[in-house]
Amino acid sequence: MTQIIFDAAVTLNGFLADENHSLQWLFDVPGAGEPDPGLLPQNVGVHVEGANTYLWVLEHENLMAEPARWQELYGAKPTYVFTHRQLPIPDGANVKLLSGSVAEHLPELRRAAGEADIWVLGGGELLGQFLDINALDRLALTIAPATLAGGAALLPRTIGSEKLELTEARQAGPFARLVYRVKP
User: Fold this and answer.
1) Which residues in the chain land under pLDDT 50?
2) pTM over 0.85
3) Is residue 46 assigned to a domain?
4) CATH, residue 177
5) Number of domains, the chain
6) Does any domain span residue 26?
7) CA-based, 20 to 30 A from 53: which of 7, 110, 142, 155?
8) How many helices and strands in the chain, by DSSP H and E?
9) Are 166 and 139 in contact (CB under 8 A)?
10) 153-183 pLDDT, tens per residue?
């Protein structure tokens, strides 16, 4: 059965990205270059991103100049980017730009995923939209030993503890891994 998973790295004080939408803080953590293979979702059929996450990956990985690298990172799986802007798409990348709410596009995301999972990669407002419509099944956080003075908050919403059930807590190299089941 398809699950919708938010799985991302976050600073100790709850930021996904800095004020410039950069994730460089994560790559500056010693040991971040040797990720635990068990951290990332395994049964992914669809990636979902916000525009800022997508644009950062394009720039950081130089994907417009080296579009073949897209396949190394995402494979042939479709990536849906929620945005209100026209964004560049690397040659050969299976990217679809969506405007509007998660609720109106959720049936399309589920169809595209088939029996596989939907991995929401970022950002906080996008995560909030999935939670607002009770469409998130799992919230997985890899907490880095780093803080930021400001930036993109993990979740600009109030979610009570009655909605989250801790299912995993462990060390993953220099990180702490927390996984919650999101209750309907």
Assistant:
1) none
2) yes
3) yes
4) 3.40.430.10
5) 1
6) no
7) 110
8) 5, 10
9) no
10) 999 899 999 999 999 999 998 999 999 999 9
